[in-house]
Amino acid sequence: MGVELISRGKVLCARLSGDIDHHGAKELRRDIDIAIEENCPSELILDFSAVTFMDSSGIGLVMGRYKLMNERGGTVTVAKTPAYIGKVMRVSGVGKLAKIVNEYTLPKEDEQEVMKIETTNQ
Amino acid sequence: MGVELISRGKVLCARLSGDIDHHGAKELRRDIDIAIEENCPSELILDFSAVTFMDSSGIGLVMGRYKLMNERGGTVTVAKTPAYIGKVMRVSGVGKLAKIVNEYTLPKEDEQEVMKIETTNQ
Amino acid sequence: MKRPINDMKVVFPSLSENERFARIAVSGIVSLADPKIDELADIKTAVSEAVTNSIVHGYPETVGKIELTVRLYEDSTVYIKVSDKGCGIEDVQQAMLPLFTTRPDEDRAGLGFAVMESFMDKIKVTSKVGRGTTVVMHKRITPKERK
Amino acid sequence: MKRPINDMKVVFPSLSENERFARIAVSGIVSLADPKIDELADIKTAVSEAVTNSIVHGYPETVGKIELTVRLYEDSTVYIKVSDKGCGIEDVQQAMLPLFTTRPDEDRAGLGFAVMESFMDKIKVTSKVGRGTTVVMHKRITPKERK
Ligand SMILES: Nc1ncnc2c1ncn2[C@@H]1O[C@H](COP(=O)(O)OP(=O)(O)O)[C@@H](O)[C@H]1O
Ligand SMILES: Nc1ncnc2c1ncn2[C@@H]1O[C@H](COP(=O)(O)OP(=O)(O)O)[C@@H](O)[C@H]1O
Fold first, then answer.
1. What span, in angstroms and rounded, lies between the C-alpha atoms of D25 and D68?
2. What are phi and psi for residue A57, nearest 5 degrees?
3. Is B29 on the interface with D (CB under 8 A)?
4. Inter-chain contact D6–C17, Cβ cutoff 8 Å?
5. Minimum-distance ligand 2 atom for the alpha carbon of B56
6. For the whole model, what pTM was predicted?
């Protein structure tokens, strides 16, 4: 379980990986929120392509980030959800809060900031 | 768990795969013994390279095949044991019954017989 | 329903790292019946929800025992029971409403029961304040063709 | 020894497919302590031996219950208990001798106890004819450095 954070211009991309459950969500949340504070993005992309399991704790994670980004006048995009995670997303109606996309491109930029945070906590 | 059987001349090679425990050993044993009956090899090579777990049921499998091959005047070779399986082999002293090798080459032959038996039983 | 062809009962403490363990244990039994990947994912998710609820809500301040029972029946029905002896639920019907949560601070979405309901065929929740909560779920799986 | 930091008790029937399940369950708990790969393999192997013995020898004709307990202690000691209420062992010392087996017909090597002894740090076997057998094993693991 972990998150890799990439900030490009006004976009912050969080590439999540591993199992997302209540146990791991706390750390993911903390890491993403710190990156939001530091980079003040107008769009937060949550990339689920490397997520292997997710229960409603992952929905809580999306909803919580939506609240934070909304307060700051920004948006949340949910990207690349594997089939089984898409199912959890659909049940939760998260599509009302976040844009759901299959693909995305990050803005190219000379100045790019990559923060890699790998939580090895199982 | 499964076994792929390759008969070339007087050599019968059994490529084992998956977890070898008491539950699966019975089927492996049956498949190998049928191939011994049919091909009458003078050497049986047991290839452990694709085995992911083994307990003393695997030792029983080797000892039982040794007895059978010995009765028929043949030999048993244990090949390509991964580290953790080598450890089980060492504890059991199976080296007294079977030749233990890292590599082997099968005799080339025009007439070759391949029997693929994949047991999907988990 | 007839006697189970296989079953398992696990007892473990309400530590959040055991959410993962509960999923592994349930996969271990259910996968013996050769379910389809998405059916196994559904069951793992439902178990994860129920176990997380016992950890987060059942024993909010303490560490208590959680009991997980899994049974496989001949007709390919999976029976799952998750129970705790925690604080219990005052109004079960209200608790089961989508988006209802008593812990919004903790980023709980209030969708645990909604996920269990939509991923399993049947769910029954019994609870008594101060005594604990039991969730029983059933799902019929389609075993892969055996040779 | 102090209180465990995590523990689990599983009860399951003596079906041979549960040998695999027992290994999955024990890995699920032990892997939370981040052991080295070969230490986890040792523990899985020892559990597989003990559980197989209960299935093959403890309940040769019937299906009975097997109980598996795993505890993790703060000093990284793993405690494992496997017990059955099967036929029991008449002479435990003899049973533990390498190559001794009462089921040579079944391709049993008589090395189950030898493997448990050499893969774990400590093993204690208690048994009573007609009442059942309990195997208790300990192993100190080296948890990987945590960040
Ligand atoms: N095992 C339990 N013990 C006590 N209360 C529970 C339990 N499970 C659920 N609840 C109550 O039901 C509410 C709704 O649960 P759920 O739908 O899973 O959403 P969430 O877990 O996100 O709060 C919880 O907020 C809690 O108040
Ligand atoms: N749980 C048990 N119940 C009854 N008898 C047992 C049990 N475990 C071991 N035994 C006896 O001890 C003998 C030696 O066991 P072991 O060293 O594991 O070798 P194996 O399983 O290959 O026979 C067995 O053959 C059996 O007679």
1. 9
2. -60, -30
3. yes
4. yes
5. 22
6. 0.89
